[in-house]
Amino acid sequence: MIDDSGPPVQPRRRWATIRNAWNLQFPAGCTQCSERTRPRSSSTTRRASHRRRAWRCSYINDTTIPTYFGQTPQQFGMALEGLAASQITPHANMRYYFVNASGHVLGFNFANRATGGPSVGEWLNQMDSDDPMWANVPGR
Question: Which residues, in sequence order, are CB contacts of 43 under 8 Å at separation 6+?
Fold first, then answer.
């Protein structure tokens, strides 16, 4: 599972804004779908932890996602680091890759590189090949 710049966050009162901005459509007949159902970060992480490998990457100062939550990019970065510590690090098959810069979607350029870490492309190759060097890249 690969999640590029879409970290699992609890949208709280911004759910309607997100749902409308992305024109989310629920499948007909879905008994667990609801206009009021909000994604929960814990359930997303629980599903990801059952994959062979899962990773999340993001700019620490993401310029898009925080606007949906009424946060500054800096507030989002602090929340992102907390999420990594509490929901990604505990799982042996999950890793994160953060770049300490402003932007959105790291995968547009696999040459992106966090300070002191491999490029995004090199890191993905490590993940795909089960390289023991595949590790969290905190970006700071």
Answer: none
Say which residue the tokens 């995004």 belong to: 120
| β-sheet with 54-62: strand ranges across | 2-4, 54-62, 94-103
Q: Both tokens of residue 22?
A: 């992305």
70-90 pLDDT tens trace: 888 888 888 889 889 988 899
Q: Is 10 exposed, middle or buried (0-12, 13-18, 19+ CB in 10 A)?
A: middle
Q: Report the pLDDT value the prediction gives residue 119, as an integer from 0 to 100.
A: 93
Nearest alpha carbon to residue 2 among 50, 42, 53 = 53
* Structure tokens belonging to residue 85: 């510590």
Q: Give the contacts of 108 (CB within 8 A, at least 6 positions apart).
A: none
Which residue in the block uniquely carries the two structure tokens 């989002």?
76
Beta bridge partners of 59: 99
Top-confidence residue, 97 or 25: 97
Residue 51 has pLDDT above 60, yes or no: no
Quick check: 48 pLDDT over 60? no
